[in-house]
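## Example record

The block below lists the input lines for one assembly entry, exactly as stored, with component labels intact.
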Amino acid sequence: MQLPPMDYLAPADLSEALAAKARLGDEAVWLAGGTDLLPRAKQGIAAARTVISLKHLAPELSGVRVQDGRITIGALTTLKAAGEHPELSRRLPGLRDALASIGAETLQQSVGTVGGNLCADTRCLYLNQSPAWRAGLAPCFKLGGEVCHPGGASADRCRSVCQSDGAVMLMALQAEAQVASPQGQRTVALDELYTGKGETPLALQADELLTGVSLELGDDPLGTAYHKLALRGALDYPLLSAAAALWLRDGVVSRVRVALGAVYAAPLVLIDAVAPLVGQEPTPERLAQAARKAGGHAEPFLVDNVGADLQWRKDMVRVVVARALEQAVQRAKGGA
Amino acid sequence: MSKQEWLIGTRMPRVDSEPKVRGEVQFTADIKLPRMLHAKVLRSPYPHARIKSIDTTAAAALPGVKAIMTGQDTAGVKWGVFRYTRDQQLLPVDRVRYVGEEVAAVAAVSPEIAAQALELIEVKYEPLPAVSDIWESMADGAPQLHDDHPNNINVHVAIEVGDVEEGFAKAHLVREDVFTAPEDSYFMTEPYAVVANPRPDGSLELWMPNAAPHQKAKALSNALVMPLNKVIVRKVAIGGAFGGRSDVFPAEFITAFLALKTRRPVKLVYTREENSVATRQGHALFTTIKTGVDAEGRVLARDITCYMDGGAYSSTGPIATSVPFLCMEQTYRLPAVRYNGYRVYTNKPIGGMIRIHGRAFAGGVDLQLDMMAQELGLDPLQVRLRNARQPGDTTPTGSYVQSCALSQCIQQAAEAAGWADKYGKLPPYHGIGLGTNSVQTGFPLGIRGGSQAMIKFNEDGGATVMSGVVDNGQGNDNMLVQIAAEVLGLDPGHIQLISADTEATANDPGAYSMIATFAGGNAVLAAAEDARRQIFEVAAEALEAHVDDLVAQDSKVFVAGAPDKGLPVGKVIRMALIQGRPVIGTGSFTPKVDHRREWLSNPAGQLSETFSFGASVAEVRVDPETGMVELLGLWLAQDCGRALNPMVVEGQFEGGAAMGGVGGMLREEHRWSDTPRCLNPTFLEYKVPLACDMPPIENIIVESMDPTGPFGAKEAGMSIAMSAAQAIIGAVSNAIGAPVYDYPLTPDRVLRAIRAKQDGEKQS
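Predicted structure tokens for the full assembly:
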């Protein structure tokens, strides 16, 4: 498959990049590592006349900083660089694992970026195909049409799925995204960044660029874990994944967040299912109870569009949540 | 073998490895010729439709477009492997039968312009009702895909040998089970591609990844109505076949037609998606197996009914419907057997031969034996040994088995895996399983059944070997060179190989049906022996020695035991030239098969001159909560007759285990939309295993020294692709304590089996 002809810009710095994007608006797309964009461009679903390469911005927007109880990751930090950062790896092994599970060592890990993973478009078995494959199918919601092919006749909106690994873990960590535009910087919680709408999964304006992501580590001992189900040891998007972030104070859960990936158009944060854990000792029974509840709460959200049996994925919510929680507890207690 | 070989049996690096590692080898898509055009194919978006009209006016007007072809240009010329299966128009005239079928093609000055032109071709279709599964397709009143095949039954293979009902009546235990699997795919590293070059002398050169150049040439000669010697299929590096390159496809016809029409070279390169959808796929299977055994687990009778989803056209249908059965009738002794194989048309891509040959067939036979062994309180290993084929046997359909070390394969694989310490003794959800299999070395292929070879010499003593054998990546080029070098006593580097070129090389069956070493290797062996005899005759006079006392080694000819007094081969060649008796070795080999045997009308008689046998053991751990399978180890044993090059054989074992076992049995399946469109035609969604998914492997080469194979060699690797898959089924079922009937063993299927067992336990 060939890339369609596209104009190419490579601005020298952030302000030049933002000015170019402001000028071109929706007709331009950002190019970081390209491991999500270029396959979509070949499939004719990237809808961009111009790509704006961020390669010259790497010095400005790369790197992991730990300061005053916050970790900040530049958007252009490669997956490998972020995952192997000693401080990040030590403090957030769940994030390390999530980032290491993306793509493969041979390509995505080296050129794919944290920001790119957070902004990766939602995926669909009927849309992420060649134009020839889609020939004869009516344009779907995501392409401005009136149908959703995986959703069938009853679907009234796009049923594409967010399969970003990084987003799920960072959502569990209640991270915030830093967003720049010619008007300046703003901060947006990841909870707000993901719209849950397959048609427009990211709440970013046409002139905005995600420049980084940061999160509070908190004062209490923190345990993080990411559990991903996939059929292969590398390369695969999750069929389902769970991320847990859990803080312990004196052996009692002081705060906990769990997010699920590959459920629907955004990472799904499970609030009610894990709320009863706060103020309690995280006993195996209580974790299992939370995981069971998570299964029930997530079930109606699960979209059947990732190439795995839907009933199995429904059944697996409990399992991945339980495993992520158990490992997060262990890590919060100082275990590996 | 009485004589000790010096090169055969050594781990000689393959002659083609280094240039491949350097990236210097040219595959078809790399070929660039002056004035070359680029072709693209327009495909049907409908699973079943009538083509009402095709308007190519706008496309033809696009600057850079040099030719357009539709079914109207080709008079609906048809292809079929057999005279009675000629059901596919190479470019359909008025009807399409699957999403992705060829409808029109364009040749233009660039691939981009060709692609643009496709968008300008206006096809008016009248959609017809389509069928997407075999049951729907066989139902009365279903849309009919082909006029002369009621209920869409394309092929029916019916075999019955011995008294099956009497066998069941006498049996101590009878079981009937159903096994299923959806379509699988080859995923050759190289997507399909063709280059065609019309030459001033009226001939047409072609390059494409193929498994039988002479067969491709013959089919094209028929379709293009050109003499066979004017259709020249050239040698090119090939990135994998696995059964999926032996058939003839519209792609080569289209490329040839466009080249002839424009009088310019034309290249057509398939996308990965086109390779998956528009070449061949493995059949989906639904197999019912009924087996009766005596109290010791000896099989008395077996009755198998298999329904295969063949897709839109016949392809190799009669063969593909037979081979799963034939492999298993070879593997185990069967006093009485009935087989009914039905290949059913559906509006899906075309089913072809695939290296795995029906995971829901062989897997079912072995799993059922495990289940019966368990019911009888027997060790499945002993049951395998009691039923294992033995040398000197005759298969139910009448093939004499001249060499067979199946029992040794079973024993050695089991011993290496520690079967005795593990079977029945592993903790819960940890299991071990055994699979056994046998494959052919060739089928009755009529006039194309034999291979011929020639060897000529240069005055410096170097030789050129000519053979029709094609190398798909499995090491056939090396096999030919290694055999010739062994016999001629030449360094492999002093042998130049011309192969798989229909202009230069003589007839050959091709590198499918596992015959390349057996037929092609034997032909080169005969040619080399012929050449060596001629060399010895000249040398004997000069050395005043007897021909029988001479040996050829290190590029010299000498009396055995006196290498110092030898003559360089180059000198002998020059003497021969002066004397007017130049050395040209020729040789041929035609396997002894029963040419009266026919897939449908007469499935009886010698199928193949010899057969290879193998056994694999797998050990797994299953996650009882997710159903995910962790493969802890594979022990792969095969009787390949003789390992000409153990390194190549091991590569075949490991590749077979990756394809059939780690991929084919644990991950790989095609998924379909309702339409039906193939939802996973690419490497991302079709789960070919990665290097990191491979378990530890122990290769066990078993050598039965076949009496007529070249240096005793038969076939290597394909039976592993099958037996590894069977072993994994056994291991997973052993681990969870319940049979799994549906494949591949993805976690959802395994978990369903675990739940079914738990539900059963609750009820009882």
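The mean pLDDT of chain B is 97. Chain B touches chain A at residues 43, 45-46, 99, 111-112, 115, 271-274, 625-628, 666-667, 671, 673, 677, 679-681, 684-685, 687, 689-690, 692-693, 746-748, 751 (CB under 8 Å).
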